[in-house]
Amino acid sequence: MFQSKKRKTLEGVIRQIQVDLANNYKDNAVENLKRLKSETEACEAAGELKEKEIRELRSLIEHYENDVKNFKRTY
Q1: d(C-alpha 19, C-alpha 1), whole Å
Q2: What is the arithmetic mean of pLDDT over 27-47?
Q3: How much is the CA Rg of the chain, to the nearest whole Å?
Q4: pLDDT digits (tens, 9 = 90+) for 39-71
Q5: Mean pLDDT, residues 16-22 taken together
Q6: For residues 24, 27, 28 and 32, what is the CA-based torsion angle, rounded to 10 degrees?
Q7: Which residues, 6 or more positions from 65, have their beta carbon under 8 angstroms from its beta carbon?
């Protein structure tokens, strides 16, 4: 998906959000989602992302926000 070191950092955050949601770690998912948003905004402001990548990240962020909003504990 991404090539640069900064973009690899974004991929790492995305993977961590997926793990957090899969393991019912809502608080961690929320914190990592905030991190993903701020990293994305910083990369966008610095011109480090292409428009297509920005759209993909915004779509992912929206998807994860809905997942967190609809999160239900299973215990």
Answers
A1: 18
A2: 94
A3: 13
A4: 999 999 999 888 999 999 999 999 999 988 887
A5: 94
A6: 120
A7: 33
Structure tokens at 35: 């991190």
Structure tokens at 45: 């402001």
* Mean pLDDT for the stretch of residues 1-23: 85
Closest alpha carbon to 71 in 35, 17, 34, 16: 17
Single pTM value for the model: 0.85
Structure tokens at 63: 């998807």
C-alpha distances in angstroms, 1 versus 18, 26, 36, 75? 16, 25, 15, 35
Q: DSSP labels for 12-62?
A: HHHHHHHHHHHTT-HHHHHHHHHHHHHHHHHHHHTT-S-HHHHHHHHHHHH
